[in-house]
Amino acid sequence: MMIDKVGGVGKFYEPKDVQKPARTAEVNPVFGQDTVKISEEAIRAQEAQQALKTVRSAPEIRQERVKEVKEKLARGEYDNLTNEIIEKVAEKIAANLVPTQRT
């Protein structure tokens, strides 16, 4: 008994009406030209994270500075403060109390 092939069984036949998609103008024919653009928001977020990391890694109290101030107090260097020194100290305190605005 012999069975004939029915409908092209055994060999792959591609449909004749299939159209291949045409290349669009958006395709970059040059390889290795990929680019990445980072948004300003992402850059600011990264900078904020880096600043936070730096602040968290810094010691709460700078022991060498505390020692220096204690020695100056013991020598009496802070007893006769001039207006200039008082104004500079006041400016530094005010700068730390008022949050800076970023533009």
Summary?
The protein is an all-alpha fold and 103 residues long.
Q: Can you describe this structure?
A:
The chain has 103 residues and is mainly alpha-helical. It has helices at residues 40-57, 63-75, 83-97. The protein has a domain at 40-96. It contains three helices and no strands. The longest helix is centred in the middle third of the chain and has 18 residues, at 40-57. The model has no long low-confidence stretch (mean pLDDT 77).
Evaluate the radius of gyration: 37 Å
The structure class reads mainly alpha
**Largest sheet, if any?**
none
* Percentage of residues in helical conformation: 40-55%
Count of helix runs = 3
Encode the helix/strand succession as letters: HHH
Contiguous runs where pLDDT drops below 50 for at least 5 residues? none
Overall geometry: rod-shaped
Whole-number mean pLDDT = 77
Number of strands: 0
Instruction: Report the β-strand fraction as a percent range.
Output: under 5%
Write the SSE topology.
Blueprint: H1 40-57, H2 63-75, H3 83-97
Features:
103 residues; 3 helices; mainly alpha; rod-shaped
